[in-house]
Design goal:
The complex is a heterodimer of chains A (about 110) and B (about 120). With about 110 residues, chain A is mainly β. Chain A has strands at about 10, 20-25, 35-40, 45-50, 65-70, 70-75, 85-90, 95, 100-105. Helices cover about 0% and strands about 45% of the residues of chain A. In chain B, about 0% of the residues lie in helices and about 55% in strands. The model of chain B has no long low-confidence stretch (mean pLDDT about 95). Classes of the chains: A mainly beta (about 110), B mainly beta (about 120).
Chain lengths: ~110, ~120
Amino acid sequence: QSVLTQPPSVSAAPGQMVTISCSGSSSNIGNSHVSWYQQFPGTAPKLLIYDNNKRPSGIPDRFSGSKSGTSATLGITGLQTGDEADYYCGTWNGMVFGTGTKVTVL
Amino acid sequence: EVQLVDSGGGLVQPGGSLRLSCEASAFTFSQYWMSWVRQAPGKGLEWVANIKPDGSDKNYVDSVKGRFTISRDNAKNSLYLQMNSLRVEDTAVYYCGRESAWAFDYWGQGTLVTVSS
């Protein structure tokens, strides 16, 4: 069972914005770096955000990350149908992942 | 292009053993920490183990300590996971991942391990 809590699902219409929260504690998020991953069914996760708010090469700036205290947030703007996927946060306390959030584009 | 190719999964009975492999290419394998991450059917991601670039330091999630062993062969650009005393709850897709900047920047395609009688 994960120590990082995410909402099970979020949804919005195309073009809108969604935010996904990731709640932890002082022993994990509060003391380390947060990363975010996108996963489509049957495929491996893909890194979207590292070091709280940095995007790897090739990740569009529609995806953004932030961290405050013991929580982190992933934002997706200009939502597209291709963004429908599961999203996971992760941080180091040993490595731990969030419970995962399914994004649905209405 | 960086590539990680996972292999070695299959069906095994409870109490059995399996060895997973991850072959890396297009980067200097010996310079990176590497991890195994698993995902049970319909469930979230769970980090399993990681290993230092020179193999001198290894870490495990509590649930696999004493049963799983992570190792690497830098000459063969390969990462391994020896899994012994397998349990039904070890059933999952196992991914290898490259660690960089406190994240997993590249992942293998995954290999399915099914533990069932």
